[in-house]
Amino acid sequence: MSKNSHPxxxxxxxxxQCRLPLSSATLDMVAGLIRTxxxxxxxxxxxLPPGRIALIVLAVLRHDQRLCDMAGGNGVSASTxxxxxxxxxxxxxxxxxRLDRALKKIARKGGIVVLLDGxxxxxxxxTGDENRPNxxxxxxxHGLLFLALTDERGNLVWxxxxxxxxxxxxxxxxxxxxxxxLREAGLGALGDLGFVGLDDDPDDPxxxxxxxxxxxxxxxxxQKEANRLVSRERAANEHGxxxxxxxxxxxxxxxxx
Length: 257
Hints:
This protein is of the alpha+beta class. The chain has eight helices and nine strands. The strands form two sheets. Strands 3, 4, 5, 6, 7, 8 and 9 form a seven-stranded mixed beta sheet that branches. A two-stranded antiparallel ribbon has the order 1-2. Strand 1 and strand 2 (15-19) form a beta hairpin.
């Protein structure tokens, strides 16, 4: 079996292979995290070696394979695959860069602007009192809100912690103190109309957005052109989110949502 293929069990108990569009470096990095973790907790035995565990977890994250399918094809239980999955997610999240450090790294490389946007990752509908907070009136769906910063080319440099779907983008940005971190790093940011009013210093703004038309004040030709320019520069941010959602498990989160 090659490093970027994994077995999947079909409905009749047969096993077939499918290819993962990931590099060997990604597999080796995840396997290294698992080995370090096992050494740290002094775990002497696992049903499968770290490299195989990493391959199974990446298959679930990338292709959203069902846990029972991956378990049957590898001779383990679905609960074991779930435990490995949550373990690796925890190890990866511990490596996530802090906002201030991510911005300072961009500044050291000579960057002057980042792209700011939010996205809703859909989740299953919850029951009881936990149902309403995750419902987004904007998207008419249940989910979790994330903010992300990308560089000018659309490469993801930072993503926020999950907020309930009913949260607004501007409130989430204020909670993460994005404007103050941008000023400390000496950077600016381009955002969509959802971030209008985020910057509290109009004389020295670090958040650049388009202009909104109102009933009594339609946009002028110059303002419309400015909006088009901002939208054009922000297009790379959409590519960053598209790359993120290539991990199909994010199409609809079903665990701990």
